[in-house]
Amino acid sequence: MKKILIVIIFSLFVSANEKTDIDKWLTYYYLQPEPNKFEIVVKELSSIGFLERKKSLAPMGGFFSVIFRGNKNKVDKWIDFLVNLKENERKIFIMALYYSDIKDKYEHIKKLVKTEKEKKLLFGIKKLKFINLIDMDVISAKTLDIHWGAFMASGDERHIYKIIDSLSFGGIKGKKPTNILIIEETAKWSLSSNAKQHKKVLDICKYFIDNPQYTTDDVNQILKNIVKKVEKNHN
Question: What is the pLDDT of residues 91-131, one digit of tens each?
Fold first, then answer.
């Protein structure tokens, strides 16, 4: 379990005392959207090898899907830039384009596809039944990361609702399978970490505490503990 809990949820520098401009662009994009910095940020993330890491795929895919959806008029220009990235880096933006669900998304994806492996990926995703990120249930640490990434870009509280739902996975009682425990514990850790950085996350936790009819008693207590811990550290 300890090994699983060190999984990093979206925020690149959650424990850092000071954030660089790029960190702030990623973590607080929904508060101050600056799409014109897209290429600068992607170039920097590429230079430090972040986009090639497997753990970056889900949160970055969720994050950039929102950016693409909100900046349809810039996508063509961005594709011309992204096509020069490494194959493992382009995978993030193929995923992001797919979940953005913008018009002609497959035409945009085709422009990023350069290898046989990517052609197989495109063939595979075309067969998938599309699910809007907002409607995606948290069934793994990866889907949890996708929601955090999408939230950082959009500020859409519905992503936090899904994460809170996962604190009591499906209302399962008694002894739970290990994979369910992992999801619940990771969701708890991520909410606590991000409630420290985002007032909106903290306020949503408080809302559910004040409206217990929307959660179970167990979840309500978890949220109370998170809020208490965050407010204690702020004082």
Answer: 999 999 999 999 999 999 999 999 999 999 888 888 888 88
Contact status, residue 12 vs residue 45, Cβ threshold 8 Å: no
CA 200, CA 151: separation in Å to the nearest integer?
10
The model's pTM is: 0.88
Q: Buried b vs exposed e over 16-30: b needs ≥16 C-beta within 10 Å?
A: eeebeebbebbbebb
Residues of the chain with pLDDT > 90, as a percent, come to 73
Cβ contact 149:62 at 8 Å: yes
Least confident of 18-32, 80-94, 182-196, 220-234: 18-32
Residues 6+ apart with CB under 8 A from 124: none
Nearest 5°: the CA angle 98, 102, 105 is 50
User: What are the structural domain ranges in the chain?
Assistant: 2-11+19-131, 156-234
Which of 63, 59, 50, 61 lies closest to 141 in space, CA to CA? 59
